[in-house]
Fold this protein.
Amino acid sequence: MDKPYSIYEMEKQSRQKGWEIEAEKRRNATECKNGHKYTPENIIWKTKNGKPYRNCRICIKASIEARKMGPRQEPI
C-alpha cells in the first residue's frame, strides 16, 4: 500500500508542475513581453547559470537609450 502524500509533498508537486508549464510557454513564445517578434535577427542569446535564454535586441537598445537619457523628470 502506498504511503499517502503529505500536504508539503502535494504542494511541492503542484508548484513544480506550474513552473514546468510556465517554462514551456516561455520556450514556445514567438514575441517578447513588449510584442516584438522573435526572429533570428532580433534575438540575442545569453546564458545564466549555464542555461541559455534569449533577449529581444530592440528592447535591449531601448533600455540602453533610456539609461543614457538619465532619470525621468516629472513635470512641476
Remarks:
- Helices lie at 7-27, 57-69.
- The longest strand covers residues 43-48.
